[in-house]
Design brief:
The complex is a heterodimer of chains A (about 280) and B (about 250).
Chain A: E1 8-12, H1 18-32, H2 34-49, H3 57-77, H4 85-108, H5 114-119, H6 126-152, H7 164-188, H8 192-206, H9 221-228, H10 230-243, H11 250-274
Chain B: E1 4-17, H1 24-33, E2 41-55, E3 59-63, H2 70-77, E4 85-91, E5 94-97, H3 110-120, H4 125-139, H5 154-165, E6 172-176, H6 184-200, E7 203-207, H7 211-217, E8 220-225, E9 228-233, H8 235-251
Parallel strand pairs in B: 3-7, 3-8, 5-6, 6-7
Antiparallel strand pairs in B: 1-2, 1-4, 8-9
The chains are: A mainly alpha (about 280), B alpha/beta (about 250).
Chain lengths: ~280, ~250
């Protein structure tokens, strides 16, 4: 839109505009469609908890019960667990829920919106954004509600918590890049969403969430494999901030920020090159 | 600046895949077995190297048999399909009157859908706020607007969709087979509204099988077949051409 309020637009097969053209357009469209994004996120959250008598409280109670069950089960299995094992589980389970839900819902995000994409113009990139946005809001709700319990159980409130928003931002952007990739790939290969589901069920046990990283003996093959799992580093950010009540190490930050940059870059490349084609493949 | 739509050498093609939903599993298995994997498809042009200039003041009707590429052309102008060759450039805000209700969320109330649809058309909540009373009145849905739209009858659904889609002053109006829905009273009212919108718009592009409607609304008509323009002329001339060459040719 130029100053006179006119809309000038051009769709040209010969002009790709590349990644940078795509990014410019993406930011412009986020502004124009900000209310649509907000609406999709809020209706998604409402739909998730609608059919229950106590409605939104399920978003608080659900992780609470999961945490209690996990704490009981795994502290029984491991006999001699960490101090404050429930807080350890809580601090790993929250980011893990965000990660795995973003990936599973992210892979479905474009094909489940087929009816929109084929009938009206709508910037496709908002759908992976909505998926990650929903998970971030969910994370915050669970965090706030469970924090009281965590403090009661002995979690310390320290200045380390001040960097929690930064950790959340880095994780969310990392997930956005990945969600953009899986959303596109799933249009071409519809079985990807099933594969994602299996992979993340496995990764849940490979990532130190229900056990501490020290449980895996170093210099073993399993340790090497565990260290190759990129999600470990993000979960470790939250372990440091919430469980150990300390600032994550510089190397921890660098790895996560590096992974975030790589995922966003790759996500934008994939999305910008395939975005125009997917409507023909839905 | 003048409103215009310029279409240059535009081609839009569709592929029909032998296997429309390949799986990663197949890909991996075939790779493992050493089978050559190739996407097998047949390709056809829905719009084939079309050039068309539409200027301010044009009320363009597009007629043609099913599959002639009319709707694809309109959806390409609306930005839903991207050109495979050539370009579409335009100056002016697009108001699509097609696939009404496509942006509805069945779980949300009528009021919420007014805002959602407005947002999908690129309007801010503040802009929709100003129009919502007019939309509500036009739809005559009254208290039903407080209900989720999944409880609406198809007539009510259509009435709301129509009321939202026609609320803004259009510059470039795209109409695809939109006919008034609902009871006789609403049909009459919405026909009036369409006439009024056509009057207000700088450019109108209408796809319709109703030659009556085309004759009534348009001052220029193109006849399309297999993605190309066969005739670009005054309504009378184009309609005569269409009846003689296309409809009769089909029957003989």
């Amino acid at each position: 839109m130029n100053k006179s309020g006119q809309f000038v637009s051009k769709y040209d097969a010969a002009e790709h505009g590349g990644v940078f053209g795509f990014i410019r357009r993406m930011f412009r469209e986020i502004v124009i469609y900000r209310y649509a994004i907000y609406n999709f996120i809020s209706s998604n959250l409402r739909a998730r908890y609608r059919r229950s008598a106590i409605g939104f409280f399920w978003s608080l109670l659900n992780p609470l019960f999961t945490m209690i069950i996990m704490s009981v089960v795994f502290s029984t299995i491991f006999r001699n667990p960490l101090a404050n094992f429930s807080i350890y589980i809580f601090s790993g389970l929250l980011p893990w829920a965000m990660i795995s839900n973003s990936m599973m819902n992210g892979s479905m995000s474009l094909i489940s919106m087929e009816s929109y994409l084929k009938k009206i113009y709508i910037p496709k990139v908002i759908f992976p954004m909505v998926v990650v946005g929903v998970e971030v809001v969910n994370f915050l709700f669970s965090l706030v509600s469970m924090f009281f319990l965590a403090v009661f159980l002995g979690a310390k409130i320290t200045w380390a918590l001040a960097v929690l928003p930064l950790a959340l931002l880095v994780t969310a952007l990392f997930l956005l890049g990945l969600a953009m990739i899986v959303s596109i790939v799933n249009v071409y290969f519809r079985d990807l969403s099933h594969i994602v589901q299996v992979v993340f069920t496995g990764l849940f046990y490979l990532t130190p969430i229900v056990y501490p990283l020290e449980f895996i003996e170093s210099k073993t093959l399993l340790y090497t494999v565990a260290k190759l799992n990129p999600f470990l580093y993000f979960v470790e950010l939250f372990h440091a901030i919430i469980y150990r009540a300390e600032f994550p190490s510089l190397s921890g930050w660098m790895i996560c920020i590096g992974l975030m940059a790589a995922s966003l870059l790759f996500g934008l490349l994939v999305f910008s090159s395939k975005e125009k084609d997917i409507v023909y493949r839905l | 600046m003048k409103t215009f739509v310029r279409i240059r050498d535009l081609s839009v093609k569709f592929r029909i895949y032998r296997n429309p939903n390949p799986s990663l599993k197949d890909l991996a298995v075939n790779r493992f077995l050493g089978k050559k994997q190739r996407d097998q498809y047949t390709e056809f042009f829905a719009v084939n190297r079309m050039t068309l200039n539409i200027e301010s003041g044009d009320r363009l009707g597009i007629i043609g048999m099913n599959g002639a590429g009319k709707s694809t052309l309109l959806k390409t102008i609306a930005g839903i399909y991207s050109p495979h060759e050539g370009s579409v450039s335009m100056n002016g805000r697009i108001t699509p009157l097609m696939e009404l209700g496509a942006g509805f969320d069945a779980e949300q109330t009528g009021w919420d859908n007014i805002f959602l649809n407005g947002a999908l058309l690129g309007f801010s909540p503040a802009e929709v706020e100003k129009k919502k009373q007019a939309i509500a009145e036009f739809s005559e849905l009254g208290e039903f607007l407080d209900l989720p739209v999944k409880y609406y009858s198809s007539g009510m659904y259509g009435r709301l969709a129509f009321s939202i889609a026609t609320m803004m002053e259009p510059e470039i109006l795209l109409i695809d087979e939109v006919f008034a829905t609902g009871d006789a009273h609403f049909v009459e009212k919405s026909s009036q509204r369409i006439l009024q919108l056509v009057e207000l718009s700088q450019i109108v592009i209408i796809v319709s099988h109703s030659l009556e409607q085309i004759k009534k609304l348009c001052n220029r008509v193109i006849v399309m077949d297999k993605g190309i323009i066969l005739k670009d002329a005054s309504p009378q001339e184009a309609l005569d051409f269409y009846t003689e060459n296309i409809i009769h040719a089909q029957h003989s």
